[in-house]
Design brief:
Elements: H1 2-22, H2 26-30, E1 33-39, H3 50-53, E2 57-62, E3 68-69, E4 74-76, E5 82-84, E6 89-90, E7 95-99, E8 109-111, E9 123-129, E10 135-142, E11 148-150
Parallel strand pairs: 7-8
Antiparallel strand pairs: 1-2, 1-11, 2-7, 3-6, 4-5, 4-9, 9-10
Length: about 150
């Protein structure tokens, strides 16, 4: 009797292994959209110039194999300054940079069109929220030793 159970267990394990081999890396292939970097302390003095305001930014990457519509998604800081994506599609494997200051949006860079800084130079938290209101990703930092945070 023990041999029959052992043989049955071995068959179940073999079937499970065969299923995994048929779909290698399926979970990894799914990917997601993530905050990858926050550059919170722009270079030079904080003089609210266009260059200085655009020196602080957040990068968001699509690690999926398909484009993702970010329309209605929000990027917020701990003080609830919010940037809402308008009609924007993040292509598969690509990154979008969300700059604080003013400029013309492209396929890889969008601008919040602000005249004041968003990201604190010592600590803050970036939250990426789906159009449904569900939190999708976050990245926090608490340091004055660096000007950026890899998430």
């Amino acid at each position: 009797m023990p041999r029959a159970r052992t043989a049955g267990a071995a068959a179940a394990l073999a079937a499970a292994a065969a299923t995994l081999m048929m779909f290698p890396g399926q979970a990894q292939a799914a990917g997601s959209v993530h905050i990858t970097k926050i550059w919170y302390d722009s270079p030079g003095s904080d003089n609210r110039s266009k260059a200085s305001l655009n020196g602080e930014w957040v990068q968001i990457k699509n690690t999926t194999a398909k484009p993702v519509s970010l329309k209605g998604w929000k990027l917020t800081d701990a003080s609830r300054h919010a940037y809402t994506f308008k009609a924007f599609t993040l292509k598969a494997g690509k990154t979008v940079t969300v700059k604080t200051g003013k400029g013309t949006n492209t396929g890889t860079t969008v601008y919040q069109q602000r005249a004041a800084y968003v990201w604190n130079n010592d600590k803050d938290k970036a939250t990426l929220t789906r159009s449904s209101g569900a939190v999708h990703d976050t990245c926090a930092y608490n340091s004055t030793r660096s000007d950026y945070k890899n998430c």
